[in-house]
Amino acid sequence: DWEQRQEEDTLLIERMLLLVRNVLHVPADPTEEQGVDGDASLHDRVLWALHLSGLDDLLKFLASCPAEQQWALHVLEIISLMFRDQSPEELAALGQGQAAAEHREDTRELAALRQRELAERRGRALQRPSRHSRFGGSYVLQGLKAIGDRDVVFHKGLHNLKSYSHDLGKEPRRVPRRRQAA
């Protein structure tokens, strides 16, 4: 935290940011690199190494954290040097082209999955009978006696078992109006 930092820590952070800035500030020399077309330049390889080390995430944190505003100009300069060789049109086209290709691929995969799911659903519909059986089954309730010494046979679904009573299905006795409780 910035409250717990010593003066040496602050100097070390500033020196590290200046080192990264100076490394990115080195101009590209195409005659020295002698790379083939499409090969990553030295600048791109440095950026990739910074990404692999996690320094780009640290720079994003320093840029977005309100407590670290003292490093904002250093971070801004480093970010501008990261995008030094790219034109805005190339960056925008690169992002859209890749996003459009990924979107088309995702759409194609989703369509194939949808077709497979519909085929499975049709196959299941053909396998089951079209007429619904209303027979829910019969169950013997052990330990609950019916008339005589036999166990109760329950003809409803098991989800109705909690509301079972011996009076289930019987007509309630009608009480005359004048004898009804108020």
- pLDDT below 50 for ≥5 consecutive residues: which ranges? none
The computed structural class is: mainly alpha
By DSSP, the count of extended strands is 2
Cα(first) to Cα(last) distance is 75 Å
Element pattern in H and E: HHHHHHEE
Please state how the strands of the largest beta sheet are arranged side by side: 1-2
- Taken as a percent bin, the fraction of beta residues is 5-15%
**Mean pLDDT, nearest integer?**
82
Largest sheet: 2 strands, antiparallel
Cα-atom radius of gyration: 38 Å
Helix share, percent: 40-55%
List the total number of helices: 6
Spatial shape? elongated
Protein name: TIM protein
GO molecular function, one term: DNA binding
Keywords: Cell cycle, Nucleus
Organism: Tricholaema leucomelas
Would you mind describing this structure in some detail?
- With 182 residues, the protein is mainly α.
- Among the domains are: 2-85; 136-165, no CATH class.
- It is 53% helix and 6% strand.
- It has 6 helices and 2 strands.
- It has helices at residues 7-25, 30-33, 42-53, 55-64, 72-82, 88-127, and strands at residues 139-145, 151-154.
- A two-stranded antiparallel ribbon has the order 1-2.
- A hairpin with a 5-residue loop joins strand 1 and strand 2 (151-154).
- Helix 4 crosses helix 5 (72-82).
- The longest helix is centred in the middle third of the chain and has 40 residues, at 88-127.
- The chain is elongated, with a radius of gyration of 38 Å.
- The mean pLDDT is 82.
